[in-house]
Amino acid sequence: LYNVGEYKKASQYLKSVLKKNPDHVLSRATLINIYVEQNKSKEAKKECGIIYMLDRQVYNTILIVIIKKN
After folding, report:
1. C-alpha angle 25/5/39, rounded to 5°?
2. Rounded to 5, what percent of the chain is helix, strand, coil?
3. Half-sphere exposure of residue 37, counting CA atoms within 13 Å on the CB side?
4. Strands (E) located in the chain
5. Does residue 12 contact residue 1 with C-beta atoms inside 8 Å?
6. What percent of the chain has pLDDT over 90?
């Protein structure tokens, strides 16, 4: 869904995954991408904070990608 631009459906799906497994870093990382595409910086920042606590390597990679996009 994310890859074809259906961000609303994709984010709903990812949130349902996170209800079952809050530590699923890939779902959180994909949500960050969706939020960045939708200019929802507050939501993206919240997910970044959670990923920072779960997996610092993924967090650092996300920061690099976001910086390169801007």
Report:
1. 70
2. 85, 0, 15
3. 15
4. none
5. no
6. 73
